[in-house]
Amino acid sequence: VCPGFCMAGCNRAGWDGAVDVRGLERWVADEARTLTVEPEVPGQRRRLAVVGSGPAGLSAAWQLARRGHEVVLIEGEDELGGVLRTGIPAFRLPPDVLSAEILRVLQLGVQARTGAFMDAAGLQSLSEEFDGVIVATGLQRLRSLDASPADWVEQGIWFLGVTKERPDFAISGHVVVLGGGNTAIDCARTAVRCGAGKVTVVYRRSREEMPAIPEEVAEAADEGVHFLFQRAPLNFVSDADYKAVLLASVTLGEPDEDGRRRPVIGNHRERLVCDRVLLALGQSADSTLLPDRWELRGERMFADGAPLNVFVSGDVSTREGTVVHAIGDGHRVATLTLSALGEQIAVFSRPPLTEAVPPARIRRSHFDAASPAEQEQLDPQGRVASFDEVNRGLPDTAEAWRCFSCGSCTMCDTCLVYCPEGVVRRLAGGYELDLDYCKGCGICVTECPRGAMEMVSS
């Protein structure tokens, strides 16, 4: 379910295709699922609560528990997993895979409390009972359309939850999905599997601006999903025998704060006749969870100006909207919480993009061109008949050999061979330069295939 942002920035992307990092990480995760992890022994064992068992909550619980702390994971639903359990179809994330991942977290000693929805009073009580609390409740409020309500219009998240519980849930006719994110694409592909005669995704921008994972959009198109771009829903119209979404034309203006072109509503109107509408227009955080006088500053809660032992993580804080962002933020906030409680620990953070090796520093002439490995996928015509997992992953790790290892020395001896003065010497763990005789010509840096060397003033 990872969008593969790293693959978009891979230095092979513009040459012969990005390294399939996502596929390799999946292979590693599948192989490592049976491995056990022994918790560390902390200097002071703390008692911590994590509210919400979605990707951010599970990640935070994992990071805290592997450092040897006592962790209680609190979930409102009857099963752990949050949006991973209820909001992502089985053909993308099989329930048994998710359960196996969650089991690894629990095997570290994490205690689970399910069926316990949190409110402001409960959160206040947790802050008094535990050394630290991490709130990872995600985006609970679903956006709707400011239009006349209709019983044939439903929230896409509800639809996905129902079909996860009842895979035999059947629908028919023309289903229209409003939205352009991953939830919209999941709804569309699920509707196809539930028997819809036709499925149309309506999005107000172009396909290039869709926030959904591009591969998922392509797979939806392969499965027969139709797309109607640059249309904005205005209202729902119906009578005894007629249902339709009233749409307005959209032109794309200047880029907004997200870098996508801003949609501008035009004068043209049209009606899209349908039988059912699924809303996937986004979500927002539920602010009623916070006690009076509490306020969020960054990722930490304050009361009357004083910092509390309560932190927030994932979409409720970042609004970034992907599983991978939530997992990363769960890791970050777990280390931040321990640091705030006095533990000597480095706070996890994203590496700055400025440290990435640019494509110009990679000497492609040292490498053979090789297309990315093919992942096994079910046939588009056959896969829509069930909720079986579509993508079966890579067969092995051969794809890893396509990695340039950008910025990392692999001891290939290129610098040694190309040095005109012979001042580069190989050691057991790398190389050394005799700076007394180095002329500073920079040939070793220029010829390094991976951009692993640089010349700086001493």
Helix content: 25-40%
Coarse structural class: alpha/beta
Mean pLDDT: 92
Distance between the termini: 46 Å
Strand order of the largest sheet: 3-2-1-4-17-16-15
Overall outline: globular
Short description:
The chain has 458 residues and is an alpha/beta fold. It is 26% helix and 23% strand. α3 packs across α11 (323-340) and α7 crosses α8 (182-193).
Commentary on this structure:
The protein is an alpha/beta fold. The chain has 14 helices and 21 strands. It has a 7-stranded mixed sheet, covered by helices on one side. The longest helix is centred in the C-terminal third of the chain and has 18 residues, at 323-340. The model has no long low-confidence stretch (mean pLDDT 92).
Entry keywords:
7-stranded mixed sheet, alpha/beta, 21 strands, single chain, 458 residues, 14 helices, 5-stranded parallel sheet
